[in-house]
Structure formats: structure tokens, C-alpha cells
Design goal:
CATH superfamily: MFS general substrate transporter like domains
Number of strands: 0
Helix content: over 70%
Oligomer: single chain
Number of domains: 1
Distance between the termini: 33 Å
CATH class: Mainly Alpha
CATH topology: Growth Hormone, Chain: A
Structural class: mainly alpha
CATH architecture: Up-down Bundle
Shape: globular
Largest sheet: none
Number of helices: 17
Strand content: under 5%
Order of helices and strands: HHHHHHHHHHHHHHHHH
Radius of gyration: 20 Å
Length: 421
């Protein structure tokens, strides 16, 4: 029994490490160092959103084809290869390439992080959770991923502060680029190491033939499309992921509206990353005591309240308490929704053997914010400098959160009905 627990613990820890490590280079570094990235690459918010849109387009196609792939091959192999290939992209990132090459790099990352990795990770997590612990499984996954992201962010801030020479506000662009390169190379090395650990140690006692199919047929795809919860989860994830993309500009809000310096604004981004594990783990335990879909609904209520506050004029450089209140309430709702939406697959009566296919179909629509959210935020922030642009971003979040609330309520009602055989 003790040996089984040790295997399950190792399995979960590796899932958590891998689940966030694969996104460190494409997303986490920019989330923590948004002002630095924009200046080092000489980009506007809209241009950076355009690079992310290329990622989203490639990812969108990858979701469809990567889903069935995860129902055929072992998750550990797909995930390890994805980690290694993603890390290699860091060599290009660290050269501060032209905008055109940066777009190609993001397209490459869209393939490595999604086609090979995404559905395999979700399926591996569902296997770990079994029938009764889906909320806990996905809560631990997303919460743990948040902790890993926070630790990477903290490490990045420490490295940046350690190698920077002089006052942060007076650093030349060449100096910022030199220092940020150390952050990139450190991240690459860690992602490669985690890939090795996943290849050799991400193993489960569940027999693969119980959860894998040799071939996914058109009939299987049609069967998945007929499940109502699949369509509802598309809209729930769409709404929640818009919220998650908005967290990319929290540090920029701190810089432009609250007038923090680069390190202080990066610390705001890192603080939010530490919120994610706390929210994810707590909400996972709570959800398994009642219903995942109920707490998914409540999470969107939090997001609506927080976004509504941040969209007002009362957030000023002197309103520190209201700023952190708005950010923390918003982040709580966003992180809770992220931790729970795939955990709702069990209550939505989606078969385990078709998890990868279902995840691919759901993600095809659910993660389209990878295409449009960065562009939309970039346009809103560049067209209306300062607080007004940020207010427009939070009004966008408010609208999508209302959509997520409605879809979650419908899914909750479906989950109360007995499963049809």
C-alpha cells in the first residue's frame, strides 16, 4: 500500500512539473516580465498578441489531431518529447529574433506544447483521479502547476536582480536583454531535465489497454460530439481561458496604472502565480466534497465581481488595497475555473477511453483565446493608453465570465441527472 502511494505521488508530482514547465518559455516568462519582454523584443502589445495568435492557430489544429494521438500512445512518451522540443526553441528565443522569426517560433511552440503534450497530460491526470477524485486530481494539477510557475517566476526575478547592474529603472535595453537571456537559458535547462524525469518515471499501475484504443474511429468522434457536456465545456473553457490570458497583463497594470517599477511589477505577477496553487488545491478538495460543476459556477461569480471592480475608475495609484482586492478576487475566480473545468468531465458523463478525443474537440473551441485574446488585449491597450485601455480589457473579461457562468449553470443541471447507459 505504501509503495502504491509512493508511485501515485511520484506520478502526480511529475505531472505537475511537466504540466507547467512546457509553458514556461512560451507564456510564463512573459507573464512575469511583460514590460521587459516588450522592450527587449521591441514590440507593441498588439505585435506580441500577434505572435501569440500564430501559436493559437497552430494549437487549434493540434488539439484536433493531438487528442486521438493521446488515446493511442503512452502519455509519458508524448509528454517527454514535447518538453525536449519546447526547450530547444529557447535557443532561438534567447537571440531576440526578428518579429517574423518570433512568430514562427510561437507557431513551433504551438505544435510542441499542444499536439504532443496537452491531451496526453489531461488523460494522465484523469487516470490518476479515478472515479471519485476528479476535482482533487485537476485541483492538484492546476494548483501544483501554479506553484511551479511561481517558483520559475521567482527564480527569474532573482536571476534578473542578481545579474542586473545599476538601478532597474535606468538599465539600457542591451543590459536588459543580456540579463533576461540568463533567465531564458536557466528555464531551458530545467525543462530539459523535467523531460528526462517524465520519460523514465511517469508510470502508473493502471493497465494501458484499459484506457487506450488502438484506433480512434469516426464513430468515436461522432459519439463524443453527441455528448451535451462536450459543447458546454467548450464555452466554459473559452470563458475561463480568456480570464487566464488576462492575467498576462496584471504586471503591466501594476506598471502603467499603479506606477510600479519593473521588479515591483514582476513581483505582482509572481505573487499571483503563488495564488494559483493555493486556490487550485483548496477548490479541488472542496469540489470533491460536493460537486465540481457547482464550484465551477461559483468561480465565474468571483471572476465577474473582480473584473467589474477593476473596470471602474476607483483603482488609482493611491488605491493599493482596492487594486490588490480586485486582482485577487479576479484571480481566485480564474484559477478556480481552470482547476475544475476538466474535472467536470466525469460529472458530464464523458467516457474515460475517449478522454483524449474529447479533450481535443473541446479544446479546439475552448482555447481559441490563444488566437484572439492576445490580439484583442494588445489592440485595447495600444489604442487607449493607460488606465482606460486596461478598463476595456476587464470589461472584455466581464463579458466572457458571464458566458462561462451561464454554461456552468446548464452543466450543473446536467450533472444532477443519472448517467445513461
Amino acid at each position: 500500500m505504501k509503495q502504491l502511494f509512493t508511485k501515485k505521488t511520484t506520478y502526480l508530482l511529475l505531472l505537475i512539473l511537466a504540466g507547467e514547465a512546457v509553458f514556461i518559455l512560451p507564456f510564463v516568462l512573459a507573464r512575469v516580465f511583460r514590460p521587459t519582454v516588450l522592450e527587449a523584443f521591441q514590440l507593441t502589445n498588439l505585435q506580441y498578441g500577434g505572435a501569440q495568435a500564430i501559436y493559437g492557430i497552430v494549437a487549434m489544429i493540434s488539439y484536433l489531431f493531438g487528442g486521438p494521438l493521446a488515446d493511442k500512445f503512452e502519455p509519458r512518451k508524448l509528454m517527454a518529447i514535447a518538453l525536449w522540443l519546447t526547450a530547444l526553441g529557447g535557443f532561438v528565443f534567447a537571440t531576440y529574433p526578428s518579429y517574423e522569426l518570433l512568430q514562427i517560433l510561437f507557431g513551433y511552440w504551438g505544435f510542441t506544447t499542444i499536439f504532443l503534450f496537452w491531451a496526453a497530460m489531461i488523460k494522465a491526470t484523469r487516470i490518476w483521479g479515478g472515479i471519485k477524485n476528479q476535482g482533487k486530481a485537476f485541483g492538484f494539477l492546476d494548483g501544483g502547476r501554479g506553484l511551479v510557475g511561481a517558483l520559475f517566476g521567482t527564480l527569474g526575478v532573482v536571476i534578473f536582480g542578481l545579474y542586473a547592474v545599476g538601478d532597474m529603472n535606468d538599465l539600457e535595453v542591451t543590459e536588459r536583454k543580456r540579463v533576461f537571456s540568463y533567465v531564458i537559458y536557466t528555464s531551458m535547462a530545467l525543462v530539459m531535465i523535467i523531460g528526462v524525469l517524465v520519460w523514465f518515471f511517469l508510470k502508473t499501475d493502471v493497465k494501458q489497454e484499459a484506457v487506450n484504443r488502438a484506433k480512434i474511429t469516426l464513430k468515436d468522434v461522432v459519439a463524443v460530439l453527441k455528448i451535451p457536456s462536450v459543447w458546454l465545456l467548450m464555452f466554459i473553457i473559452l470563458a475561463a481561458y480568456v480570464g487566464y490570458k488576462v492575467t498576462d497583463v496584471f504586471s503591466l497594470f501594476a506598471r502603467e496604472v499603479m506606477l510600479y517599477d519593473e521588479v515591483e511589477s514582476a513581483k505582482v505577477g509572481t505573487l499571483l502565480l503563488f495564488m494559483r496553487p493555493v486556490v487550485g488545491i483548496i477548490i479541488g478538495f472542496i469540489a470533491d466534497k460536493s460537486r465540481v460543476t457547482l464550484w465551477l459556477t461559483i468561480s465565474f461569480v468571483f471572476s465577474i465581481i473582480g473584473a467589474g471592480l477593476l473596470a471602474t475608475d476607483i483603482i488609482t495609484p493611491n488605491a493599493t488595497f482596492l487594486f490588490f482586492l480586485g486582482v485577487m478576487v479576479t484571480a481566485t475566480g480564474i484559477y478556480a475555473a481552470r482547476a475544475l473545468y476538466f474535472g467536470a468531465m466525469q460529472e458530464g458523463h464523458i467516457p474515460l477511453a475517449l478522454t483524449g478525443t474529447a479533450v481535443g474537440i473541446i479544446s479546439f473551441i475552448g482555447y481559441t483565446p490563444d488566437i484572439f485574446a492576445g490580439l484583442a488585449m494588445g489592440y485595447l491597450l495600444d489604442a487607449n493608453k493607460g488606465q482606460i485601455g486596461h478598463q476595456h480589457v476587464y470589461l472584455m473579461l466581464l463579458s466572457f465570465s458571464i458566458l462561462g457562468l451561464v454554461a456552468s449553470l446548464v452543466l450543473y443541471r446536467i450533472s444532477l441527472k443519472p448517467k445513461k447507459n
